[in-house]
């Protein structure tokens, strides 16, 4: 047989909350029922996600997860992020729900991926459908290698405290041998890890260190997305400080 379709069915405490969240990301409701059991089916082009409601379900205890293979993780992330910014005025990077940014995943053949953690605590992992793993960069420095380890720990496993420990040790050890671009990437990710932990002081410190790195124009072009992340995190930190 061929052309089969698999549909993930994930738990949540409220299907209405799920509908609101995924509508923000560009999904539409294909099926909805409240009784006898809460159930909703959501679609966005060829992506289908189904959810069943469990009264009293705690998203923090969820083991719900699935992988979604797409042709362009960057374009899909940008679309999701635009929806989040329209509704919330920012990218949700901490708590539940939240979304990670597209990054190279060492544990997925160095492909680029990002994760949506929805209001049900489900980890919906968006990965490129390229079947060929990307070879690791043989010229990668120790700092980049440690950054990739930290990303696996923080973005794939959700252990942002351990990821921060890995990155802090690497930045201290390798700060004098890393390239300016590697330092900016590492400090930027460190700032995001701090924001996930709501450690605003550590986030501010990492952002300041990233801004202090002198970049050549060629680096600025290559790091355009990373520098935009810096701008957004600085704006979000100012808002958080003002509360």
Automatic annotation (TrEMBL):
Q: Which Gene3D superfamilies match?
A: 2,3-Dihydroxybiphenyl 1,2-Dioxygenase, domain 1
Domain of life per record: Bacteria
Q: Which InterPro entries match?
A: Glyas_Bleomycin-R_OHBP_Dase (IPR029068)
The name on file for this protein is VOC family protein
> What organism is the protein native to?
Nocardia puris
């Amino acid at each position: 047989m061929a052309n089969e379709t698999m549909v993930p069915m994930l738990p949540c405490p409220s299907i209405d909350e799920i509908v609101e969240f995924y509508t923000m990301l560009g999904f539409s409701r294909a099926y909805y029922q409240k009784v006898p059991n809460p159930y909703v089916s959501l679609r966005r082009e060829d992506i289908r996600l189904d959810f069943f409601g469990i009264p009293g379900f705690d998203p923090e205890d969820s083991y719900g997860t699935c992988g979604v293979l797409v042709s362009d993780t960057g374009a899909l992330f940008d679309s999701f992020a635009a929806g989040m910014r329209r509704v919330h005025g920012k990218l949700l990077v901490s708590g539940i729900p939240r979304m990670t940014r597209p990054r190279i995943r060492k544990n997925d053949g160095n492909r680029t991926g990002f994760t949506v953690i929805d209001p049900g605590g489900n980890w919906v992992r968006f990965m490129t459908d390229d079947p060929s793993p990307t070879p690791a960069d043989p010229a990668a420095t120790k700092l980049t290698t440690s950054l990739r380890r930290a990303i696996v720990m923080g973005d794939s496993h959700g252990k942002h405290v351990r990821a921060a420990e890995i990155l802090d040790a690497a930045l201290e050890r390798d700060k004098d041998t890393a390239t300016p671009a590697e330092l900016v990437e590492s400090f930027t990710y460190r700032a995001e890890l701090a924001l996930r932990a709501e450690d605003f002081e550590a986030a501010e410190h990492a952002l300041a260190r990233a801004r202090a790195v002198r970049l050549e124009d060629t680096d600025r072009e290559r790091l355009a997305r990373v520098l935009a992340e810096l701008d957004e995190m600085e704006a979000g930190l100012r808002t958080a400080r003002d509360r």
